[in-house]
Design brief:
Two copies of one chain form a homodimer. The first copy, chain A, is mainly alpha-helical and 255 residues long. Chain A has one domain: Heme Oxygenase, Chain A. Chain A has helices at residues 15-29, 35-41, 47-72, 78-92, 100-110, 115-120, 126-141, 144-150, 157-171, 181-204, 208-236. Chain A starts with 14 loop residues before the first helix and ends in a 19-residue tail after the last helix. Chains A and B meet through helix 7 and helix 11 of A and helix 7 and helix 11 of B.
């Protein structure tokens, strides 16, 4: 790093320095530090709080393939499209089976929710929709480098998934191999995705301006994730102020 | 209203019935019922809470003319554009003076904030941005009828503005004719805007499908407003959990 002129940094960071900067963003802002995750993984969530998390997080899951399709729609490189397409496949699965969305609906069933209700997204908080939709639009509208950099929260995901599997298995009756299949699968998929994405971003962010843009994109994405948990926490935990018309724990419950 | 077949309503509502339906949405969902407004108008806000409200609400104010410009950009009717354009003028003012944005920055100064900091939007909560940006995009992307129906929260605004002026004047030292000029001016502007918008929506929502869409657009807009106060309340009041990187009361304070 070079900061000669009155503290203003003017030269591009080395790949190692820039990667360190991206990882520092995760260390400071990734949603593993949100109190809702502590509550969830520590076994402190009530049934309605677990269900609200499943309902709201589904909106994120089901939007990811649209986000990745938006990315594909802007890639001029067939090579890049061929690699990136696996993300859509991983989440959507095949015509008849498989995919992260179906695995998330298995989790929904296991916590006593009607999967059709969850899939309808009728119980999703407005603030969740605003945040997730902002992410899909970011990837649709911003430079490809920024769009890919925003996906690098996956750098920090394996730790939280491993932690979540352990915490849920230890603390909740619904948790088992079948209901937690989504997270087990992501442990396999995410490292491959993020290794490619990180390498691409480090190589293509070849000016300080692009590095700043990529870092800001990653910050934006951490805001998207954090805002979802803030909305969940505010509505269902503390102070438990469900917005007008919001899901109150009754609709879509089958168990 | 006609609900013969197993409770499913199939016929278009009369203008009076439909107006009643729209007003009922306000009665159930408008943000005058949010606890933050009770706190603010009742004199219960700390300095930092008032400032956080001013900073975050500015993001909404400064986005409104972009929203209305998006509306103008989609109007084929020059007559409609000529009428609607006054909304942009009301908020932006002239090249050198006037307009709601400048009046809001006067309010910012009066509560001890640097207007340049407020105008930079650096202190705005991510959740505020997600909600407000969703509104701008809604107006850019949805049918004109829906876009106009979303503006009808103005039906409910004069009451909250009158209530706010009274509450702020009674409870805060910063409140006076000059600092509250924004709200006084809106009391003049909003009734003209909403009279036109309501009449237009009532006349153009001539099928039940369009009435449903217009009602949903108004619900969407109440969600946009409510989410902003939820984010503010969660960050600065209860439990006071400021998101990572969020404004903590220090930056941009001059008094």
């Amino acid at each position: 790093m070079n900061e000669f002129q009155s503290g203003v940094q003017s030269e591009v960071q080395s790949a190692a320095e820039f990667e360190g900067r991206l990882r520092q963003i995760g260390a400071e802002r990734y949603h593993d530090k949100h109190p809702f995750h502590k509550l969830l993984h520590g076994g402190g969530c009530t049934e309605i709080q677990v269900r609200a998390w499943v309902i709201n997080r589904f909106y994120y899951q089901c939007s990811i393939p649209k986000k990745d399709a938006a990315f594909l729609s802007r890639c001029d490189s067939a090579d890049l499209r061929r690699i990136w397409r696996s993300r859509v496949e991983d989440h959507d699965g095949d015509v008849n089976e498989g995919g992260g969305i179906r695995r998330w609906l298995k989790l929904a069933e296991s916590v006593g929710l009607d999967p059709d209700f969850v899939e309808s997204c009728e119980g999703v908080l407005p603030a969740t929709k605003f945040a997730v939709d902002a992410y899909v639009r970011f990837v649709r509208d911003m430079p490809l480098l920024d769009a890919m950099a925003a996906s690098l929260t996956e750098l920090f995901a394996p730790a939280i998934h491993a932690n979540r599997i352990e915490g849920l298995l230890a603390n909740y009756d619904f948790a088992n191999e079948n209901s937690l299949a989504y997270f087990k699968q992501r442990l396999k998929e995410a490292p491959k995705d993020v290794a490619f994405g990180l390498d691409w971003v480090l190589r293509h962010a070849d000016t300080l301006e692009k590095q700043d843009a990529a870092a800001n994109a990653l910050i934006f994405k951490t805001d998207v994730l954090w805002s979802q948990l803030d909305a969940l926490h505010s509505a269902y935990v503390d102070p438990g102020r469900i917005p007008p018309g919001g899901w109150d724990g009754r609709l879509g419950v089958v168990a």
